[in-house]
Write a structure and sequence with these properties.
Helix content is about 85%, strand content about 0%. It is mainly alpha-helical and about 160 residues long.
Length: about 160
């Protein structure tokens, strides 16, 4: 059995994690769409509060990455841009939900759309970052290669001592 290179191993792990997250959000979206997960007034309020905070974090993280050269070196600006439409949607969706009392079907469809969009983002990122690693992944690959080289060096030293 051929051993995977550190680069491929890190890429597979990262892309696999993103695909696993995408599957979770897809399943949650389907469960919400088909009313398996019920919608109550309390869950609507919690969703609005959490997503307003999340949308604020998405927008602030985008601007932080945009204006901080040190942060931009470690992150993909594409990843930050992809969540901006979601943040805008969540702001509008939540404000409309606070202003006008909406029926449960409004949340059933709206929440499902959020989960499906997040699914699309993570699937795209899993494929894209396999071929174009983010800077933090490149650092992890370099660390893995250093650790593997150190391990081989230690094994070579051990074999020399045994001889």
């Amino acid at each position: 059995m051929s051993k995977l290179s550190p680069e491929k191993k890190v890429k597979f792990i990262y892309s696999g994690e993103l695909l696993a997250i995408a599957i979770v959000f897809f399943v949650l979206g389907m469960l919400k769409l088909f009313s398996v997960i019920p919608t109550s007034d309390n869950s609507q309020l919690i969703f609005k509060i959490v997503t307003l905070g999340g949308a604020t974090l998405m927008v602030s993280d985008f601007f932080w990455c945009l204006f901080s050269p040190r942060r931009r070196k470690k992150n993909s600006l594409l990843d930050k841009v992809m969540v901006l439409p979601l943040a805008i949607y969540l702001f509008a969706y939540d404000i409309a939900g606070f202003v006008v009392n909406r029926p449960n079907s409004y949340y059933q469809i709206g929440v499902s759309m959020v989960f499906f969009y997040i699914t699309c983002i993570y699937v795209f990122q899993a494929i894209y970052h396999y071929y174009h690693p983010i800077p933090m992944m490149i650092e992890a690959i370099e660390e893995e290669e250093k650790a593997e080289a150190l391990k081989k060096e230690q094994e070579a030293n051990t074999n020399k001592k045994d001889d």
